[in-house]
Design goal:
Blueprint lengths: L7 H9 L4 H7 L4 H5 L4 H10 L1 H8 L4 H4 L2 H17 L9 E4 L7 E5 L4 E5 L4 E8 L11 E2 L4 E5 L7 E7 L4 E6 L4 E6 L8 E4 L15 E7 L2 E6 L4 E5 L8 E3 L6 E7 L2 E6 L4 E5 L4 E6 L7 E6 L5 E6 L3 E6 L4 E7 L5 E6 L3 E6 L1 E3 L6 E4 L2 E6 L4 E7 L10 H4 L6 E7 L2 E6 L3 E6 L19
Helix pairs in contact: 2-7, 4-5
Length: about 450
């Protein structure tokens, strides 16, 4: 074919007129000769010229053999970014709905080792849902959560509910906390067809000044230490290798500790007393304290994976960005119309969930922000938002009596999908691994380097 005989100089000139990695990827399908360019230095140089930062980051993650197809990998990542930016697929929020629980779902986690999603609820149960690969509705299949779920744990008392849960893959355990102040440590049984959990008894810790156990509002397993944030403000620390041993109390907060996140030898906590605290997990001492971090109570936080940056969500509807070195706010994201109940991020995107918009006094609910919102951290701007409509599959009559817009209670930002737990008892999965439709060739006339 005549196309196979085009001199490299002409090909280079043609490629200079292309300004989109999607088109560069499509060019490889023109013919065998053009396809071979994907393993030649020409493509690599063009990619580095147009996207120097992204390609530099990619090259540090590849060995010599993988670098031969570095552009192909980069193009695939670019396509995935475009899917994230477009938002959920299909009508409404485009999510697959699993009606797992009879009450709020404050926590859900993916346990990759067992291929399941675990969720806990105020109804006093922990349920497991399989993650089926290649069994979606599309022709090629998508990564979805299956419809079948089963109960793997429940509380000891009829009216006792789970408030928080975290995963400890290192020890093959999950740990959940209840509104009765009990810690449920659950170990995965081996050699079973589907996940079964065996409980490890953890003594109830009674607060000396109260004479009873405090409600556990948040849980984080980090540095092989179990941290439980309690309703009165203290954080209880137990070693994972000795859950029946002594409990170390970390005083500081004066109201419910709503969220904790750990990274390296650091633990960050936020509370309804409007304060932020950073703890050293080796000494269990508070190293940084930010009082009045927001105008109202704090409900969520997350830590950046590679930068000294923290994000916090509050009942004042705002998301603040913090520099952990100076303990100063360096940015703010506005858009939610209710409490920012949960946060999750990767290097470039932040995902947030909305909740109740409460009036003065924090009692009356004026409205509900039931949206998921995606933010671009490079541009510090919103990408999209999706309103989640409540679905009560187990009781259709509930629509006439229950709040139609329930809060988003937890989110997980995974590779190619979003997991979320909601006030209607559902766990939802939004899949971003497949394009909305076949992309058209976005030919451009601007220079490749422009």
């Amino acid at each position: 074919m005549i196309r196979d005989k085009i001199p490299p100089e002409i090909i280079l000139d043609i490629l200079h007129e292309v300004g989109d990695p999607i088109v560069l990827c499509m060019i490889r399908e023109v013919c065998v000769h053009w396809s071979s360019l994907g393993t030649e230095e020409l493509w690599h140089k063009l990619s580095c010229k147009r996207w120097p930062q992204q390609m530099a980051m990619r090259q540090t993650q590849l060995n010599d053999k993988q670098q031969e197809s570095s552009f192909t990998i980069f193009a695939e990542e670019y396509l995935q970014d475009r899917r994230w930016e477009r938002g959920p697929r299909g009508d409404g929020d485009g999510s697959l709905i699993l009606q797992a629980h009879a009450d709020w779902v404050p926590s859900c986690v993916q346990w990759e080792q067992h291929g399941i999603v675990l969720s806990c609820s105020y109804d006093g149960t922990v349920r497991a849902t399989p993650m089926d690969r290649g069994q979606g509705d599309g022709e090629n299949g998508t990564n979805n959560i299956g419809q079948e779920s089963w109960e793997v744990a429940h509380t000891d008392h009829h009216r006792e509910g789970f408030i928080a849960m975290d995963l400890c893959p290192k020890r093959g355990m999950i740990v959940a906390g209840s509104d009765y102040g009990a810690v449920y440590a659950l170990h995965a049984k081996e050699d079973t067809d589907r996940l079964e959990l065996q409980r490890v008894e953890v003594p109830l810790f009674e607060a000396p000044d109260l004479g009873r156990a405090e409600m556990i509002q948040s849980i984080e397993v980090h540095d092989d230490v179990l941290f439980c944030g309690c309703e009165g403000g203290p954080i209880h620390a137990r070693r994972m290798d000795d859950l029946t041993g002594d409990v170390t109390v970390l005083p500081g907060h004066t109201n419910s500790v709503m969220c904790m996140r750990g990274m390296h030898h650091m633990l960050a906590s936020c509370a309804m007393d409007q304060s932020l605290r950073v703890w050293d997990t080796t000494t269990l001492q508070c190293t940084r304290h930010i009082p009045n971090a927001h105008d109202r109570s704090l409900h969520s936080l997350c830590l950046h994976n590679t930068e000294a940056t923290m994000f916090t969500g509050s009942r004042d509807h705002a998301i603040k960005v913090w520099d952990l070195r100076s303990c100063q706010s360096v940015g703010q994201l506005d858009g939610h119309l209710g409490s920012v109940t949960c946060l999750a991020l990767d290097d470039r995107r932040l995902l947030s969930g909305g909740g109740f918009n409460r009036g003065p006094g924090d009692v009356e609910v004026l409205s509900t922000d039931s949206t998921l919102r995606m933010w671009d951290l490079r541009m510090m701007k919103p990408l999209w938002h999706s309103c989640i409509r409540s679905v009560y599959l187990d009781n259709p009559m509930a629509h006439q009596f229950a709040v139609q817009d329930e809060p988003v209670l937890c989110v997980q930002l995974l590779r190619g999908r979003i997991l979320s737990g909601h006030g209607d008892g559902s766990v939802r999965c939004s899949d971003f691994t497949e394009p909305h439709s076949a992309p058209s060739a976005p030919w451009k006339t601007r220079g490749f380097g422009g």
